[in-house]
Amino acid sequence: MTQQHLAGELSVLLERVQTVTTTETAGQDASILRQAAETEPVHALGWVTVRALALTDRLCWDSLNLGDAGAFARQAAVGAALREFGVCAGLLRDA
Amino acid sequence: MAEEQGPEGSEAQVSEAQIAVHWREEEYYPPPASFVGQANAADPAILDRFTEDKFPDCFKEYADLLTWDQTWHTTLDTSNAPFFRWFVGGRLNASYNCVDRHAAANPDKTAIIFVPELESDEDVHISYAELLRQVNEFAALLRDFAGLKTGDRVTLHMPMVPELPVTMLACARLGVIHSEVFGGFSGAACGSRIADSGSHVLITVDGYYRAGQMTDHKVKADEALATAAKEGQEVDKVLVWRRRPGQYASQTPMADGRDFFVDELLPQYAGKTVEPVSMPAEAPLFLMYTSGTTGRPKGCQHSTGGYLAYVAGTSKYYQDIHPDDVYWCMADIGWITGHSYIVYGPLALGTATVIYEGVPNYPDGGRPWRIAEKLGVNIFHTSPTAIRMLRKVGPEEPRKYNYHFKNMTTVGEPIEPEVWRWYYTEVGKGKAAITDTWWQTENGGFLGSTLPALQPMKPGSCGPGVLGMFPVIYDENGNEVPKGSGKAGNICIRNPWPGIFQTVWGDPERYLDTYYRKYNKNPDSTDWRDWPYFCNDGAVQAADGYYRILGRVDDVINVAGHRLGTKEIESAALTVPEVAEAAAVPVIDDIRGRVVEIYVSLKPGLEPSEEMAVKVSKTIEAVIGKIARPKNVWIVSDMPKTRSGKIMRRVVASVSNFADVGDVTTLANPEIVEQIRHHVQAEKVARGEVPRELTEAEEAEIKAFGAE
To answer: How many CA atoms lie within 13 A of B239 on its CB side?
Structure first.
């Protein structure tokens, strides 16, 4: 199917994840995930989305532990957008 | 937010195919009488004109929608099958067909309506005469400044701005092959496509609006050039359109002698005209990259004559586009949908096509409906994902706006009946036909759909094959799966069609391997009947001939009739925090056909245990369902991998099936294969799980697993 647009939207969201990372390692993780979204077959996008959500989740916990409310808010917003997209695109199960 | 074990309730969606299989048959919806009365294809005689006995000459009807410099002498040349050639001997220019002829007949008629994302900015209406001027001037710049000539490739990395179709049409005017990369993709992705296509020129923009923010886009050009250089391709010139001429929206410096602002160069070409190059019908028009299963994107090469004829014909009959319509496809031009059904199809028919810059729900969920109301859009085209998102942010928003759609198309994914009904009732207000389409980047245009005035709609089904298209569903052994059997299989198209891509750019073997070898019985045959096109999608055909598409078949394991995607099983395993990598493989099973086994490696410092294997198994079952519960979970110290890091699933699949693992000497870690083999096979022998000897076909299946 012409599902390439899902890869594109996920790439855009992962670009947003890249901008809210607070460590070099997390930035690299986001970059790897974005590369996967742009090159892996469409059926792998669910896996990429799950990993991306796990990354934003981790980022949020790190920010909470550091008491950085601003970073937390930005990261949570990206995570919410990722989740909403994943559900609407059928990449995640709505629970 | 969830605890550290991962995002709660965010399991990878495995069951899309399963859900589809279990959808019950839905009722039919007839098209509204008001639609039928004005439809381009309202006379059932059209169905008779495209029957199999009229193939391939039936497609003359599509080709006749175009203006040809020279008529073709052969409709379909199969002498080098499956590299089919359409309208051989014919010559035409795509830019002429989409611009000049309409500018001559109706110069003031609107060609493009650009809607900026910021509602405070004015919409831009571009007439066919104005479009012709812009295309000519930019074509002159491309030829005289950038040095581009017929047959060259040029990479475009542009968002949804009107300069994108202008650029595409200017390339087409010169016979230059454009390769547009979705604007939201990274510079690295663009760079690899530059390298693969051998482009010396990159055309980009400085920035654009997305979700209310000006995005710095030029920064990606530098990243793209660095990636391309790493892959051996140097770019001489970067042409930068500015979102607001005279104002630079990027923080990235322009490179002297390499980067140029288009708005500074264009005045030198004011009033210039470029004679459209008369191209052979078979000359490539553009490349469109699509991700493959190897992680290496493939450049689908589309032709000039066949492609343009096909998108013009399907736009006319399936989207029901008339010249006086206002048509809005909400996709991005960076995808094939945008190429075919924002730019080439609608403009070939001389209609007004809407280009919207931003995201559909900015600043709120009512934006698309305000645009439709303001512009008088009467044909709307979008994806199920966008429909679901719009429904979520504003289920009753469409009611607030006074627009009237006559036809609404969906594209990109199967649409669930519940969502279909919202689209029909709320968005279409119960007064529009819905044209659910199925096709792929490789196909140029629609493969399966309903002719909206002649074939009733059925939620969840795309419909039968479109005019001149003769699909069939085969099982793995090439046996036809009968309609109405309720059984899923691999949907194929028995015949070639004008919109089909010509090859994978620079890799004809991949074209053959991926799309044709699976069901070809005679590689020397020049009869098209011997070359069914393997779509790589699974499908079910109902008794009425309508198809329900189930999704990609890559790496699907068929367990007792349930099609499980390996990636989804692996995704489920990867939600276990201790798991670092996972590979799901099929094992031949005489009762269930195939069962799943999964290999996992753990994060550093963790030891394998029975408890961990149970945890992985239970997680997969919880996420996907009992059907996906692996027969065995093998915890290994590492996975066999290529030097680029790809897990070699066929190797572990061979181990699980006691088959020959083949040559593993080129792996990054060949020693691991023997370790895994010893561990797994010794355990299986001890448990009495040694499978019978595989048949030749089964052995071939295992060896091919995960390969492409």
So the answer is: 26
CB contact under 8 A, B335 and A85: no
Write the CA distances from B408 to B199, B528, B677, integer angstroms.
Answer: 37, 34, 54
Q: From the candidates B566, B571, B603, which should be mutated to test the interface with A, based on the most A CB atoms within 10 A? A: B571
Locate tokens 């590689």: which residue? B523
* Three-state SS sequence of A41-90: CHHHHHHHHHHHHHHHHHHHHHHHHHCCHHHHHHHHHHHHHHHHHHHHCC
Pair of tokens at residue B575: 């939600």
Alpha helix stretches (DSSP H) within B354-455: 367-375, 384-393, 417-422
Looking at residue A2, what is its pLDDT? 64
For residue A28, the tally of other CB atoms under 10 A from its CB is 12
**Cβ contact A44–B388 (<8 Å):** no
pLDDT (0 to 100) of residue B413: 75
Residue B164's identity, in one-letter code, is: L
**Contacts of residue B515, Cβ cutoff 8 Å, sequence gap at least 6:** B82, B442, B533, B534, B536
Q: In this structure, which amino acid lies at residue B132?
A: L
Q: What is the pLDDT of residue B620?
A: 85
Using a CB-CB distance cutoff of 8 angstroms, which residues of chain B are in contact with residue A42?
291, 552
Interval B138-174: pLDDT, tens: 999 999 999 999 999 999 999 999 999 999 999 999 9
Gap between the Cα atoms of B263 and B244, Å rounded: 9
Q: How far is A66 from chain B (nearest CA, A)?
A: 16
Q: Give the tens place of pLDDT for each residue, B249-269.
A: 999 999 999 999 999 999 999
Six-digit token string for A83: 């989740």
pLDDT, average across residues B95-106: 98
According to the model, what pLDDT value does residue B582 have? 87
Take residue B240 and report the two structure tokens written for it: 């930068």
User: What mean pLDDT comes out for the span B597-608?
Assistant: 90
Q: Rounded to two decimals, what is the model's pTM? A: 0.83
| Spatial CA neighbour of B166 closest among B143, B203, B141, B135 | B135
pLDDT digits (tens, 9 = 90+) for B4-54: 223 333 333 333 343 344 456 789 999 999 999 999 999 999 999 999 999
**Contact residues, chain A, for B623 at CB < 8 Å:** 93
> Under the phi-then-psi rule, with left for phi > 0, alpha for psi from -120 to 50, and beta for the rest, what region is B432?
beta
The per-residue b/e assignment along B320-357, b for 16 or more CB within 10 angstroms, e otherwise, is: bbbeebbbbbbbbbbbbbbbbbbbbbbbbbbbbbbbbb
Asked if residue B201 lies in contact with residue B156, where contact means CB atoms within 8 angstroms, the answer is no
Mean pLDDT, rounded, for B277-287:
98
Q: Which two tokens stand for residue B406?
A: 């006559």
What average pLDDT does this structure show over A2-30? 93
Say if CB B99 and CB B115 are below 8 A apart: no
Asked if residues A16 and A78 have their Cβ atoms less than 8 Å apart, the reply is: yes
Q: Which two tokens stand for residue B462?
A: 């795309």
**Cis geometry, peptide bond prior to residue B159 (ω within 30 degrees of 0):** no
Contacts of A4 in chain B (CB under 8 A): 182, 290-291, 335-336, 441
Residue type, A93: R
pLDDT confidence of residue B563: 61
Q: Which residues of B touch A44 (CB under 8 A)?
A: 567
CB B12 within 8 A of CB B581: no
pLDDT digits (tens, 9 = 90+) for B431-467: 999 999 999 999 999 999 999 999 999 998 999 999 9
CB B218: neighbour CB atoms within 10 A? Answer: 23
B495-533 b/e with 16+ CB inside 10 Å = b?
Answer: bbbbbbbbbbbebeebbbbbbbebbbeeeeeeebebbbb
Residue B646 confidence (pLDDT): 67
Mean pLDDT along residues B106-131 = 98
Dihedrals phi, psi of B12, to nearest 5 degrees: -60, 135
